[in-house]
Please model this.
Amino acid sequence: MIEKGVNVKEPKGKLGILLPGLGAVGTTLIAGVELIRNGYSKPYGSLTQMGTIRLGKRTDDRVPKIKDFVPLAQLEDVVFGGWDIFNDNGYEAALNAGVLTKEDLDKVKPQMEAIKPMPAVFDKSYVKKLDGPNVKKGKTKMDLAEQLMKDMENFKNANNLDRIVIVWCGSTEVLLNPDSVWNSLPTFEAALKENHPAISSSMIYAYAALKLGIPYVNGAPHYTHDIPALLDLAQENKVPISGKDFKTGQTWMKTVVAPGIKARMLGVNGWFSTNILGNRDGEVLDDPDSFRSKEVTKSAALQYIFQPQTYPELYGDIYHKVRINYYPPSGDDKEGWDNIDIFGWLGYRMQIKINFLCKDSILAAPVALDLALFSDLAKRAGMSGIQEWLSFYLKSPMVAEDLYPEHDLFIQLMKLKNTLRYMMGEELITHLGLEYYD
Ligand SMILES: NC(=O)c1ccc[n+]([C@@H]2O[C@H](COP(=O)([O-])OP(=O)(O)OC[C@H]3O[C@@H](n4cnc5c(N)ncnc54)[C@H](O)[C@@H]3O)[C@@H](O)[C@H]2O)c1
Model:
């Protein structure tokens, strides 16, 4: 817990952002930051870079940019690196991902070519559709974790960094069944030494990061640090963690539209969401076990927003279906369709149709950037464990045991901004109109 108006340590020196997974999201993030800091574009889509925050009374006229209000690392001070199972450098990987044009990538070609993926910790049993040559060898999973810790330390020394954060931008792993080896740090560490199958590759990265006190963000929907052993480790080593699954595309749209329907007490009979995408993420999600991880994170949001237990007449019987279809010709241009069957006054039925033609990684890259910068801020503010205030960016936000996650985008934004106000010792904003009272 932070104290009101804590002294957040200034971001001196450089910040390393290490990404397990240099695919569509990872390379769009890196190339985007390079293009922005070289003046080719503005940081559209990034709250940390473009957002403002109102302070004090409405009449005070104090609305600084978030990046001028809290001491965030500057984009100029960020150094990128990462791991991937393929050897392609950042430029080649970005071309393959097909998100940004060659024309744009050529503007930052030397910087992108300098990104050389470190050999990954990877096991095909957790991502069935992938295989690649750039993979570490080790006798045990503990051995692999130690190799990752060395990578992190070497990267820090080689680039003369002050701090590091890690954001998982790797493929979605299969949905694992909870296992007793997850229950405590000692059982987890014993299992690492025994190569236990309940420990996935992403858990090895998270363990290595948390051991070194490095904040870790999970941008994918699978289990990683949301298990007791790693939650304990995060607390023990005072490390901020967050996850899971970047909130982009269809789920972002859901958490915008659903609160609006609920605010007016309109009922919902059904919500059918389907989409087509053709990038590698889509290919990985074509495997039913990886899709299962995604289906779980995509389905939960509506349940929490509509609260069917509290409003059974309105939301007690929603037919909610989510489909993801791999369709290579679409590439990274995901197309989503939502059909929402709603009812209003006297039970009369209406429909809302949303056809969202989005670019997945264009939406995800600024989310990954903000999560990295805010996680670094949280660490310097002495915050540790699950960072619920970052739910704004996440499809399936991690919360403390016994709490339910908040999915409403607008409540999430309020929570985020109030956390920043609290951190800097400013009054929290409740939107209470005191002018109505004597
Ligand atoms: N694009 C989006 O809008 C979006 C939104 C929410 C979540 N996500 C999640 O973000 C992740 C990345 O998405 P993407 O579109 O960049 O996928 P991608 O397939 O383009 O990139 C993933 C990369 O991770 C690499 N990889 C896989 N396992 C690895 C491991 N163990 N270590 C290191 N590298 C590994 C792959 O080789 C690949 O290059 C996925 O899990 C996806 O579900 C993406």
